[in-house]
Amino acid sequence: ARLENFDIGGTIHIVVNNQVGFTADPAQSRATRYCTDLSLCIKAPVLHVNGDNIDQVVRAARIAARYRQQFKADVIIDLVCYRRYGHNESDVPQFTQPILYKAVTKAPVVIDKYGKQLIEKGALTAEDLKAKKAAFEEKMKTAMNNAAEDKDYIKVKDSVGEGFKYSGVTGAKTTGIPLADLKTIGEKICALPDTFSLHPKAESPIKNRREAIKKEDGVEYCLAEGLAFGSLANEGFNIRLTGEDVQRGTFSQRHAVLIDSKTGDKHMPLAYVSKEQGHVTIENSALTEYGCCGYETGYAFGNHDTLVMWEAQFGDFANGAQIVFDQYISSMEQKWFVQNPIIISLPHGYDGQGPEHSSSRLERFLSSSDDTATVPANFNLKAEGQELLDLSESRIQEMNWQVCYTTRPSNYYHVLRRQMLRSFRKPLIHAFAKSGVRAPNLSPLSEMAEGTTFRHVITTEAAEKVRKVIFCTGHIERKLRAMLEAERKSTSNATLHNDVMFAVVEQISPFPWEHIGKVIEQNPEAKLVWLQEEPQNMGCWQYVRPRMNNLVQHMKGDQSFRIPFIGRASQASPSTGYESVHNQEEKAIYNKAYE
Questions:
Q1: Is 74 in a helix, a strand, or coil?
Q2: Can you give the pTM of this predicted structure?
Q3: Beta bridge partners of residue 529, listed in sequence order
Q4: At what angle do helices 221-234 and 179-189 cross, to 10 degrees?
């Protein structure tokens, strides 16, 4: 709570301490005397107060408010209460708490106890108390009856941010900007003060970025990110990126905040794009996925004009924030009619680094997507340009979140910019390959220039007649093509397997029906397969299989079509822990892909 860029000036924590949790003794649920003893870690004062004593409860609240206001620090109120009916009104707590509930059933309810005190003090008469209770009960009954008679009461109402449309997206924006503006922003985010002493190993990537801007080619992943951040900031949006090691980047790839090797001073080039730009915050977080991801989700709730992104150190570590994904991000719009633009950035990809450094568990996010598995009624294979862009955006608007896995730096740039330029807000789960953050994975600046936009599916070059189309996600396409090039050189066969095309699905959910449909339509005789590096019970397979089958059946009328799977066999662990085994598995995938 006191970390830089996370301090909110203190929080008043109110613990409604019912003591009997699910009819278990307090001694069974903790080893300490008080349920608030966790506060010892942050040195926050605790006010223990009897919930039956109304005057003291009010006094404790006033003390807590004054403390937080004066010291800008956390304070806790331990409101000591009890459960009159156990877990709920139909529970029988006497099963497990017979002695305690003999006392509880005899205890007067709070309103009667406090009413008696007021009568004894002469503040009220018994008639006054009776009249006030009757008036309050009548008020509640009236409200309930009015709600029941309201024809809109049980209907789901549209989501909410003022100024955000909820249906019928039209005029969705292309996300490229003029080339001259890209170059200007690129020069700014690669500039350093004259007296700044950069670490020798950090000089090379910064120099390469300057050269890429100058030549308008060779843009690597985090330069594309910087161009997206810088251009959005230049347009007035705020930027907030947090997570473990995000300033440097877990893989020493970002270098968004540079440190003078002689003085230790910090410099963030993105803060100097223009005088009128939005505020940019890039901050390393505490080592808690649950705490930081939850904080950023809450921050994004109230800041729709801020690109808020939380990045896991490795995608595997995101499971520490699983409660936030399940209870809030995936379902908040359906449960509470609120929109949230949070971006969850997850390093993902199999590089032989073992089961704890390979998978962001894409299957978990896809299993929580409410995207339809059947071909949509408005499926339109003829849609092109703006019509297709509007159709794609309207599908995103209708679903609970987006799941993307971008492979090209330019596409990463576009997915970040479209997150803020659209007329609504939607969470984005974004995976990226650790192996793709440096050369040779580069993009020309022209792919981010005016008139360009996000590519839902990216196809590779192939012979005029394609024998096989391999649909996949992520860097496995780049790895298999590199293995193919090596085999072509070793066999002196430059055209080996040039009749195989890769179709890399960059937006997985909502499923890009038209974009994949166009690939199928353009290659009517080709064999279609799905390939992934994750085991068969993980990754995207369970999500894409019914959708690919339904799409092909719809387009070709072949109800018997079932798309084949290429990848690792089902297993409990995301990956092997042995690099030699990993390489064998990858070679087997390669052989199967090109057979």
A1: coil
A2: 0.92
A3: 470
A4: 110
